[in-house]
Amino acid sequence: MSSDIKLTQSRVTEEALSGRLPLRSSERVYNGYGSFLWTCTAFSAATWAFLIGGFLPYVGDVRVGVLGYLAGMLIGMAVVVLASGLPSFKYGVEPIDAAKASFGPYGIVLPLFGLLATCVGWTYVVVALTARGAANVLQTVEQSDVATAEPVVIGLALFTMFAVWLVASKGPWLFERISNYIAPGHILVTVVMFAILLYHYGAGLWTLQVPVDQRLASTPGQGFALAVEFGISNSLTWWPIMGGLTRLVKRRSHIVGPSVVGVGVLGAAFISMVAAFAALSAGTPDPTIWMIKLAGPALGSLIMTFVLAANIATMVIMLYLAGVSIQQIKPLTRVRWDILIALMLLPGVYVAFRTEWTLSIVMSWLSYNGVMFVGITGVTFVDYFILRKETLAPAHLFSRDPSSKYWFWGGVNWVAVIISVLSVALYLYLYNPVTTAMHPLAHTLGAGIPTVVVSGIAYYLIMRMFVIPSGKGGYKQAGSATTSPEVIPTL
Questions:
Q1: Is domain 27-367 classified as CATH 1.10.4160.10?
Q2: Looking at the DSSP assignment, which residues form a beta bridge with residue 30?
Q3: Closest among 381, 392, 406, 379 to 479, alpha carbons compared
Q4: For position 213, what pLDDT does the model report?
Q5: Pick from 338-352, 430-444, 476-490: least confident
Q6: Which residues, 6+ apart, have CB-to-CB distance to 458 below 8 Å?
Q7: pTM of the model
Q8: Distance, CA of 312 to CA of 442 (rounded, Å)
């Protein structure tokens, strides 16, 4: 009998981890500070961290760019962890379910679209990056151009997707363990590249700069503002990711530190700093070129192979988060987990045959995806911390009934939706992440944080003046809402 109970508990835990059921403390994957730190680091330290580093020198003084990017990542991640990470951690729910308290059960279509665009879209981009990077490594090893033939790239892309499916279909347990090796490996590789740079250039490394006519900013102040904004816009893309990860963490004290340090410092700023100087030294932002150029064909190819293989963990995490959230679409709740992952990867077959198109077109579009979450971050932060005082009714997050506390108007909180949409327009008015055009106000105040603040204040005032007095949204009972031990894990 006891074995049957254990088997049933195991199946329930498996269903919760690969579905939307609230997770209890005993069902969570991350038991320690270090394990969550390494997952955050591994996810943030994908190939895009090296590509971002190649961009930083163009803000002006590369040292200013690195410091500004670090500052932006720290500021943005702190806000995102509070807005998305803490509600999901406390109630063991994924971020789209938590967002129903502010958007309504049907209004969450907006953040759900942003989450899927971010996780699935970037998965395809990393597939393309990995395939073309691996082809370059093969070309170096074979000392020929044969490896760059398109059939080889296609084969590598298809193999990458199969490897991602194989790991992702096992749920979060496997990528938690893999990250414990990949993240330290990323840091070691970056330290090795930094040592090589210092060996070649010595103190002269700090004097490397792009030509003045190629700089995006004319003054150090403008360059710093641009780098800060770049860090903030990058960190805002973590709104749909942070909640999905903190849902798997056991202790509140293990959230903020690993998130901010792992994502902002180790995974983003440190790696991007080394990549910035490496790109300057090699004359190209492409890591598949400068890694091999700096470290030599043998060591460079070995390092690049590890970096590309490590992308598997990043893609697995993104697909896991997308797979959980996409079950908001009711018919997909009945699809087996491994098949669901395969269905999300299926459009990637087209990407495998069009990797160059993916990198040139899709990456430009995805540069805007951080903008999607500017207003959403402001709305969810104010709603959870100020209006609801960190108290939700978990059962009502899973209800699509008009009697639900979070029904608002036909299942949609139009205040949250409209403010989130208008915030995108405001952000783009202040700063365009593709053209890097900045309004004069953004040179001083930035664009991301002011837009988050404005959207949060607008949401607070409208909700206080009109929505809460009307009795919609369950705010009048928020302070006295009870929490069920069957739903909320013991912390």
A1: yes
A2: 249
A3: 392
A4: 77
A5: 476-490
A6: 419
A7: 0.87
A8: 37
pLDDT at 481 over 50: no
Residue ranges of the domains in the chain? 27-367
The per-residue pLDDT for range 144-168, each reduced to its tens digit, is: 655 457 788 889 999 999 999 998 8
Q: Round to whole Å and give the CA distance between 308 and 80.
A: 28
Instruction: Choose the weakest-confidence range: 36-50, 331-345, 419-433.
Output: 36-50
Long-range contacts of 480-486 (CB under 8 A, 24+ apart): 481/391, 481/392, 481/393, 483/391, 483/394, 484/394, 484/395
Phi, psi of 61 (to 5 degrees): -70, 125
Per-residue HEC secondary structure of the chain comes to: CHHHHHHHHHHHHHHHHCCCCCCCHHHCCECCHHHHHHHHHHHHCCHHHHHHHHHHHHHCCHHHHHHHHHHHHHHHHHHHHHHHHHHHHHHCCCHHHHCHHHHCCCCCHHHHHHHHHHHHHHHHHHHHHHHHHHHHHHHHHHCCCHHHCHHHHHHHHHHHHHHHHHHHCCCHHHHHHHHHHHHHHHHHHHHHHHHHHHHHHHHHHHHCCCCHHHCCCCCHHHHHHHHHHHHHHHHHCCHHHHHHHHCCECCHHHCHHHHHHHHHHHHHHHHHHHHHHHHHHHCCCCHHHHHHHHHCHHHHHHHHHHHHHHHHHHHHHHHHHHHHHHHHCHHHHHCCHHHHHHHHHCCHHHHHHCHHHHHHHHHHHHCCCCHHHHHHHHHHHHHHHHHCCCCCCHHHHCCCCCCCCCCCECCECHHHHHHHHHHHHHHHHHECCCCCCECHHHHHHCCHHHHHHHHHHHHHHHHHHHHHHHCHHHCCCHHHCCCCCCCCCCC
Token code pair at residue 247? 């849902």
